[in-house]
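dumping this here before i forget
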Amino acid sequence: MRFPQPYTLKQIATIIGAKFVGDEHLPVLGMNEIHVVQTGEIVFVDHPKYYEKALSSKATVVLINKEVECPAGKALLISTDPFTDFNKLTDFFKPFQKSTILVSPTAQIGANTVVQPGAFIGNHVKIGANCLIHANVNIYDGCVIGDNVTIHSGTVLGADAFYYKKRPEGFDKLKSGGRVVIEDNVDLGALCTIDRGVTGDTTIKKGTKIDNQVHIGHDTVVGERCLIASQTGIAGCVVIEDEVTIWGQVGMTSGITIGKKAVILAQSGVSKSLEGGQTYFGYPAAEAREKYKEMSALKQLIAK
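structure:
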């Protein structure tokens, strides 16, 4: 998430009430999670296991809960609770905006696009030309939709990420300040849910077609010309490359990559990255022919 204008390190430290290490005039351009953070941005880390990864990332500023040696060219924000302070920054730069009407006056809607009665279009949404948004679709603030997109009833774009930190008193939510981006020529079925990125974008690329009742988690990227069948559940931070086919009731864990032109057969469970150009089946998902051989061998053992 990029800020509307550069802020200095000292200004950011003042917003969250943190001590800083580094040049107080250092420009800070935005904030992001570690897997997408870029130069000029803030990343947060609150566990020793990930200190080195955060300190060696592309981030210019590391929001951290321990005083450590500051890498050359970077800065530190020292916080007792980086998770909470990251939320404070999200609230500051992307505060919740209440809506009072179904279609926000700040929404931009392209030529020949039809918005059916009962659809909700939030603040600062951008919708391209020749789209069809059916009744009772909910498009949350900041979503971006390209041209020639069809979205069927009951679909929700831009709900918060399912991202929590366990505390002694319960679960603490990481607030979402990212977007959902739907590119040109995408079809979304009824009752789909596509969560916004925490600080970046959840993206559905050109020409992809998604069936009814599909869930796509935060910061996931679905490539071009993919087919995703009903009741598939895709966790956050997944990368699905171009021309992948995913059949019904497939489930995927977070942070994996599905290679180009892979096919995942129905009711498979995907727990690790899969190479492209192959067909997969089962749980854990494996190359389909090998999986069928395993099942046949097991059946023969049981029969004996």
